[in-house]
Write a structure and sequence with these properties.
By secondary structure, the chain is mostly beta strands. The protein has one helix at residues 3-19, and strands at residues 25-27, 33-36, 41-44, 47-57, 72-80, 86-91, 100-103, 106-114, 129-135.
Length: 138
Amino acid sequence: MSWPTLVVSLSTLLAAACATSTGAVRPIGLNQETELAPGQSVQSGALRVTFTQVDGDSRCPADVTCVWEGDALVKIEVSEQPGDPVARELHTSGSAGAGEITYGGFSIQLVRLTPQTHSQQPIPAQDYRLTLKITQPS
């Protein structure tokens, strides 16, 4: 393999890796479920949504029988371009708070939060994955 071919191949590989990093904004369509890691952002039209963190996870562990499902508080930032991001919260339990919010004519729904909790295994912050869906009610 020649040097120019090797440089082009490595540049392409590096660009692909950067496109999936937490700093990149991934475009998505309406009515699609999409999964985000903490720090990742998606954009649908003018709406940008960033998964910032999980702040408190009291969901019932998979290895325990609970009388209440528990709740996880998911923090996101939303903005319409151009505009400053606004902090919003989503809950995994409907009895604890909203699992769906509206912002600028868009609806943002928490579909699921993974991984499932276990009683003796704390979840590292970077391991959380938020699945959400953006719609535009008529």
